[in-house]
UniProtKB/TrEMBL annotation:
This protein's name: Uncharacterized conserved protein
Pfam families the UniProt entry points to: YCII
Domain YCII-related: 1-115
UniProt record similarity statement: Belongs to the YciI family.
InterPro entries: Dimeric_a/b-barrel, YCII
Domain of life: Bacteria
Length: 143
């Protein structure tokens, strides 16, 4: 099963991060990522730029409204993610607990749905399976 570990931080955690030695932060995250890689569970992961560089598309109206960051009234910011392969929710939780984050930060852990989770006789699920196979074929020939 695939799990997404979603890194969230409140304003205090972001401020604390900005006061840390960047080299130490990168070393701690690098060691964590290396442990995920060596265990064979890391499928992907990225950090995100500052919220002020992003935007939100709000679908409460038609047409949707685009608002530049930073976002007012934000209690937690989504700062990055990992996607891991784990045999159970408990294993995913164990990996999440090892992440080098401090107070004010959280990892939300959610299972990533797979095509097999949906009705296989659905036209769009069948199309999606074909698209994914086609994309994998293109990626396989690009390497």
């Amino acid at each position: 099963m695939k799990y997404m570990l979603i890194m969230r931080s409140n304003d205090a955690a972001v401020e604390d991060y900005e006061n840390l030695d960047f080299t130490e932060v990168i070393a701690a995250m690098g060691a964590y990522n290396e442990s995920l890689i060596k265990a064979g569970v890391l499928l992907g992961g990225e950090g995100l730029t500052d919220a002020k560089d992003g935007f939100v598309v709000d679908f409460d109206s038609t047409p949707p409204v685009v608002t530049d960051g930073p976002y007012g009234e934000t209690k937690e910011l989504f700062n990055g993610f990992w996607i891991i392969q784990a045999s159970s929710p408990e294993e995913a939780a164990e990996w999440a607990k090892r992440c080098p984050l401090g107070p004010g930060s959280k990892l939300e852990v959610r299972r990533v749905t797979e095509l097999e989770d949906f009705p296989q006789d659905n036209e769009w699920i069948q199309k999606e399976a074909g698209w994914r196979a086609e994309a994998e074929g293109r990626l396989g020939t690009a390497n």
